[in-house]
Amino acid sequence: xxxxxxxxxxxxxxxxxxxxxxxxxxxxxxxxxxxxxxxxxxxxxxxxxxxxxxxxxxxxxxxxxxxxxxxxxxxxxxxxxxxxxxxxxxxxxxxxxxxxxxxxxxxxxxxxxxxxxxxxxxxxxxxxxxxxxxxxxxxxxxxxxxxxxxxxxxxxxxxxxxxxxxxxxxxxxxxxxxxxxxxxxxxxxxxxxxxxxxxxxxxxxxxxxxxxxxxxxxxxxxxxxxxxxxxxxxxxxxxxxxxxxxxxxxxxxxxxxxxxxxxxxxxxxxxxxxxxxxxxxxxxxxxxxxxxxxxxxxxxxxxxxxxxxxxxxxxxxxxxxxxxxxxxxxxxxxxxxxxxxxxxxxxxxxxxxxxxxxxxxxxxxxxxxxxxxxxxxxxxxxxxxxxxxxxxxxxxxxxxxxxxxxxxxxxxxxxxxxxxxxxxxxxxxxxxxxxxxxxxxxxxxxxxxxxxxxxxxxxxxxxxxxxxxxxxxxxxxxxxxxxxxxxxxxxxxxxxxxxxxxxxxxxxxxxxxxxxxxxxxxxxxxxxxxxxxxxxxxxxxxxxxxxxxxxxxxxxxxxxxxxxxxxxxxxxxxxxxxxxxxxxxxxxxxxxxxxxxxxxxxxxxxxxxxxxxxxxxxxxxxxxxxxxxxxx
Length: 632
Fold this sequence. Notes:
Blueprint: E1 9-12, E2 20-21, E3 31-35, E4 39-47, H1 52-55, E5 62-65, E6 68-80, E7 83-92, E8 101-102, E9 146-155, E10 158-168, H2 169-177, E11 179-182, H3 184-192, E12 200-204, E13 210-213, E14 218-219, H4 220-230, E15 234-236, E16 242-247, H5 248-251, E17 258-260, E18 265-273, E19 280-284, E20 287-299, E21 311-312, H6 314-322, H7 348-358, H8 367-370, E22 375-377, E23 385-388, E24 396-402, E25 405-408, E26 417-420, E27 428-431, H9 433-439, E28 443-444, E29 451-463, E30 468-471, H10 473-479, E31 487-488, H11 495-502, E32 511-518, E33 529-534, E34 539-550, E35 560-563, H12 567-590, H13 608-631
């Protein structure tokens, strides 16, 4: 239960146990300022009356009113016209929760009792090098989020070992950011359990779990911020040092109160604000990566290759490439990874594949397929290749003997030949790092012990689902497109889950706030679903109290309240006014003084005076329409 007014203010000095009644307050200055999840303070001016209570008004003293405790944060003395006074600002005692502080674990628990040479927590790394018969898929130093598979195949005298590793980057992000699933009770318990300031907690209503950064260091104020950030429908409304967290459904209750314009209120101020209107948002979710590593080992006797005879140097590359001059062009011919006798005929790509294979580098014998084995460079050197056509769509390839000379298999009816690079310069130049190392090494192929090996690796990233635009179509239809900042969160691998969160990131309706000033100093109730009536505008609806200024002792300063406007309130209000507008126009169409005998098509024309009548009629009818809908 929420306490009633005791109509008594008492004070307890810092470090004292007794309380004293405070009878020196200016009644017009005393008020409570409250705003949901934001503000709760008490302010007043006290005049020097020589009392013990007045002398207790100092920083960190406690003020008690209406069953709640407030802590003085500001007490400003003022001497004016021979009268000493204090202007006091006190905040609700629950803000003292900021004094609770949690610290992360800095020291390795095994060294918790030591004072010197203390190990850093998490600073010890252990690597196990276990021999598992050649299968290293379970090595301890592997990424724990990776799934690895290995396969092996034979292609003639070549052994191909392929290792594919899939890494789930949603889990990787979670590990890096220490993301953990928490209930709201877990957050409260982490900070509040065992505190020595007298704080306790309650959770009223059902909240879902939320994935947030692992609880570590921070203050009790950080705790409150985490709650309101990760549970947007939470309302924090304490009872003194008992931190109570409500769902909105549990907090907003009807207490049978009514605010009626010109009956018990002086002003209703409705404010529409579309400054923060957003109705579409780009969503980018989680990713995973695929690492492919291909190890090839080729025996020297490959039925036509030159690997046993080549010299691994720039000149060795030139000599080997020229050794195929005069070999006829055969589309889909032999050579390279296609196998067979390259002297029987090759095409452009199998020729490049063959020369590279001669040096122990295995690349596909097809232009687009070999692209990933190279990276683009600005200027060529010996051993580089030239692709013709765009990335991912190349249709021809040559090799560079030097920056100014190319060698290639040209087209059907011709033979392998050498030309100046300017004769048919490629679209882009690319380099294989293994070949680049070979042409600069100067070593002999025979040094490899009768076989050659090479390794190729490639990493490709994938989104679990394509980035997409979430749109509130009703809002866009009415207001046009208002994009929000992109919502990028690598923790999502499910599109539907991301859509639900994306809905909370936009504001598809203009904000509607209502401020009400009353005749009296009645006591507002936080979360009260007050019934409001404005007969002149025919408005009748229910809205919750989300803020107030309450002057309990003043005869001059009435209570003012701020009411919420959720999406449904706004839509109901707008819908009623739109329907009333259509009713007003229909009514004007049917009036005799709007009949137009010279207008057989029935086109309605409206004068300025008639437009004013429409406006007046809308104002009269809109609220009534809405009231009827509520009652129906």
